[in-house]
Amino acid sequence: MNQIRNIVILTGAGVSAESGIDTFRDGGGLWEKHRVEDVATPEAFARDPELVLRFYDMRREAIQTRQPNAAHHALARLDAEWRGELLIVTQNVDDLHERAGASRVLHMHGEHLNAWCTACDVRSPWTGPLLDRPPCPECGEAALRPDVVWFGEMPYGMEEIFAALRDADLFVSIGTSGAVYPAAGFVRNARDLGAATLELNLEPSQGTGWFDEARHGPATEVVPAWVDELLARQ
Ligand SMILES: [Zn+2]
């Protein structure tokens, strides 16, 4: 492999699964007994805000009881020790990358531990419930919603992500299904722009064929092994 300096890593649900965080994909389209279209779309929020807020209050509470696993810790070590550019683009809305110590993290689908005020557009750190319609810390309006990108909404940070992909020597996809765009298209962008590509996933994903190399196994095993290898070559 050529000299690697700039790395973009995309992480998905497979990284947090071994920390006990499930997604709607685990339950055959159901998420904690809810259909995705009933809790994770702007239309659902307009139709039944209490159901949606209660659902996210439950998720927000649950993730605070979970702990980062060996995959999060390995990526945090890479973040700390890698001397080139690095961007961890995560589809996960938990804060386990940060709690493991990583700082170069971009949450393209938002964060459970933020509330977004639809009145003043300010995002505030948030750990408690939203169901009781608390006032926005910034403007005082009772207009907070989960700061999570719902189906049908635009992911965050796309310009920054594509800028990083343009400069990347290596693109690594970890624990993602390869099914949800635009993230599923990153590997093709990276390839077109000349980066080497690697998939680390529990099993071959829908996009496996697009990668130069794929390694399959639990994230807590394949990710630390890959990070060790990469740092040894630095
Ligand atoms: Zn506000």
CATH class of the largest domain: Alpha Beta
CATH architect. name of the largest domain: 3-Layer(aba) Sandwich
Low-pLDDT segments: none
Bound molecules: zinc ion
Distance between the termini: 13 Å
Largest sheet geometry: 6 strands, parallel
CATH H-level superfamily title of the largest domain: TPP-binding domain
Shape: elongated
**Can you count the helices?**
9
Mean pLDDT: 93
Beta percentage is 15-25%
How many strands in all?
A: 11
Q: Please tell me how large the radius of gyration is.
A: 18 Å
> What is the fold named in CATH at topology level of the largest domain?
Rossmann fold
Task: Supply the helix-strand structural class.
Answer: alpha/beta
Number of domains: 2
